[in-house]
């Protein structure tokens, strides 16, 4: 089969939001399924969540520093401070410090068990040592993937252009020319290069696999996980992971409601005439322009993927 040119896809994630009525005299419990697809509907905590960058004093010199702040609902937050800068933008991939805290009179106050405090107002954050001395200031930053909005090259097969869904099975246009998850390509693929753009909902009460879980199932056999893993460790079942098989080299997940990109190069497994596998599938993935898998050899199907075989199969954009 000929090699396919890049495939263009734009996929938002839609969720059903339900409201539970409390008994008389009781406060309404938080809706653990709450999901916002519009910043205007995300609530007050959303303004504090995100990425901050700047420099602080460490070891008697100024050191580039990144900070990721994750909303947990009801004014509670977790955060991670990175030495060298943000993941994919200077972080030394070794030094990180966790924090947790809450809002106090409109100011986010975060503390670390290792010592030190961070105070943020949604536009900037100030880092203090354990004695209350100011170490430096970090500014809120909004990163944009360098491949966002990439134009299809000549000869590309465009699976979704904002209007036509004739190349997709089960397609549902969500809103404003966007595509909802839960679709399968009519195109059967072997070797290809794919460009994908996606946006995750804001789900502050959800945790783990409940936080915007989906995935790109190549040939319905091999899953590149999609999940709101912003600020998390970056393991094999989080965003960018080859599900349960290989974690991303770095967690490049941006905050929810930010447009993100995958650029995927895939070489299908090879089989002889008797159906015996002679070579494993291989994959290279850029997440928001940063390599997270470099010609990785996929030794078997991932998770609930279909069994490996020589026949080409479609790509499933999973709705989990």
The first-to-last residue Cα distance is 31 Å
**Strand order within the widest beta sheet:** 2-3-4-5-6-7-8-9
Give a short account of the largest sheet: 8 strands, antiparallel, barrel
Over all CA atoms, what is the radius of gyration? Answer: 21 Å
Question: What string gives the helices and strands in order?
Answer: EEEEEEEEEEEEEEEEEEEEE
How many E strands?
Answer: 21
What amount of the residues lies in strands? 35-45%
Overall helicity: under 10%
User: What structural class do the secondary elements suggest?
Assistant: mainly beta
Average pLDDT, all residues: 90
What is the tally of helical segments? 0
Q: What general form does the structure show?
A: globular
Give the uncertain stretches in residue-range form.
Answer: 1-25
What does this structure look like?
By secondary structure, the protein is mainly beta. Helix content is 0%, strand content 39%. The chain has no helices and 21 strands. It has strands at residues 7-12, 50-58, 61-73, 76-83, 96-104, 107-111, 117-120, 124-128, 134-141, 157-158, 168-169, 183-185, 192-199, 214-218, 222-226, 259-267, 270-271, 277-279, 281-287, 290-298, 316-319. The chain has an eight-stranded antiparallel β-barrel. The chain has a six-stranded mixed beta sheet with strand order 10-1-13-16-19-20, with no helix packed on it. Strands 11-12-21-14-15 form a five-stranded antiparallel beta sheet, with no helix packed on it. Strand 8 and strand 9 (134-141) form a beta hairpin. The model is unreliable at 1-25 (pLDDT under 50).
């Amino acid at each position: 089969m000929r090699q396919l040119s890049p495939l263009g896809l734009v996929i938002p994630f839609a969720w059903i939001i339900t409201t539970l009525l409390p008994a008389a005299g009781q406060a309404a419990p938080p809706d653990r399924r709450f999901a916002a697809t519009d910043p205007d509907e995300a609530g007050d905590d959303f303004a504090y969540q995100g990425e901050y960058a700047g420099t602080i004093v460490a070891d008697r010199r100024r050191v580039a520093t990144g900070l990721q702040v994750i909303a947990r609902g009801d004014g509670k937050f977790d955060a991670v401070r990175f030495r060298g800068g943000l993941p994919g933008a200077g972080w030394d991939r070794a030094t990180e410090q966790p924090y947790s805290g809450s809002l106090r009179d409109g100011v986010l106050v975060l503390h670390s068990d290792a010592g030190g405090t961070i105070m943020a107002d949604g536009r900037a954050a100030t880092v203090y040592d354990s004695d209350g001395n100011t170490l430096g200031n970090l500014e809120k930053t909004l990163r944009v993937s360098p491949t966002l909005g990439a134009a299809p090259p000549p000869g590309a097969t465009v699976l979704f252009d904002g209007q036509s869904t004739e190349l997709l099975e089960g397609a549902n246009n969500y809103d404003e020319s966007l595509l909802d998850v839960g679709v399968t390509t009519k195109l059967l693929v072997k070797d290809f290069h794919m460009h994908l753009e996606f946006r995750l909902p804001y789900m502050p009460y959800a945790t783990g696999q409940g936080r915007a879980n989906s995935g790109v199932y190549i040939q319905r056999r091999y899953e590149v996980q999609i999940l709101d893993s912003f600020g998390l460790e970056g393991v094999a079942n989080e965003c960018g992971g080859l599900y349960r098989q290989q974690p991303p080299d770095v967690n490049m997940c941006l905050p929810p409601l930010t447009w993100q990109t995958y650029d995927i190069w895939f070489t299908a497994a090879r089989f002889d005439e008797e159906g015996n596998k002679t070579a494993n599938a291989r994959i290279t993935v850029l997440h928001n322009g940063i390599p997270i898998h470099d010609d990785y050899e996929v030794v078997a199907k991932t998770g609930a993927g279909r069994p490996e075989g020589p026949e080409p199969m479609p790509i499933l954009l999973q709705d989990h």
